[in-house]
Amino acid sequence: MTSRYAAYTKLKIDYPAARVLRITFDRPETFNSVDAETHTQMTDIWRDIDRDADINAVIVTGAGKAFSAGGDFGMIEQMAGDHHTLMRVWKEAKDLVYNVINCNKPIVSAINGPAAGAGLVVGILADVSIAGKAARLVDGHPRLGVAAGDVAAIIWPLLCGMAKAKYYLLTGRAVTGEEAERIGLVSMCVADEAVQETALQVATELANGSQSAIRWTKYALNNWLRSAGPIFDTSTALEILGFMGEDVREGVASHREKRKPVFRPDCPI
Fold this sequence. Notes:
This protein has helices spanning 36-51, 73-79, 83-102, 117-125, 141-144, 152-160, 162-171, 177-183, 195-207, 211-221, 223-227, 229-242, 247-256; strands at 11-17, 20-25, 33-34, 57-62, 70-71, 107-111, 114-116, 128-132, 136-138, 175-176, 188-190. The chain is an alpha/beta fold and 269 residues long.
């Protein structure tokens, strides 16, 4: 590993092929949940990759049986009701999405199992997303008691249409790898044992292609996402607002106690 990435201690970095960098969420014992430090590092690393002249393509995947279970409960509990922490996480959440969008290198995600929350951000924002049949993609924000922020409002309707986006985001239901491919949420679904090999083949092809053509095509296409910036900014602000309320505490408690949440039946808006 070059010194450029030495500070990213929460992420496993390797080079599976010439000019291809691979980032692995590496907490398999927690299904690669994202703690505060990991969230910061995953936000910042895209700027370094953008400036790295030795890299032409990136793979993102997870160690073990999961891609990423999203934010861990410790991080969520720290956020709940803490204004200073919320402001920091809000900025990071926005920067993570925009840094991925603006990174000049094509990104390939190898979604090898469950993907949620902050992990799902990179999984479906990737330029090419490859899911295994065992993949389970879920935006669990409503189940937690907060609005679907992160990447939901900026990318789900564009990928799979408003009807499907509303169904899955409002209900919090999981999408299988095969269903995700069928509705257009991911680029392709392959056999679980073929996920990593397929991702490497695609990343190698991109790394060996015309870099100006590939990077400029990505930049132009991502203007669709940039144009949805106000929608995205609203969704993240409303998500953060939810962390000041009562429902998120019930959401976390119900997860820990492995039961259905009992939210307030009313809402003033």
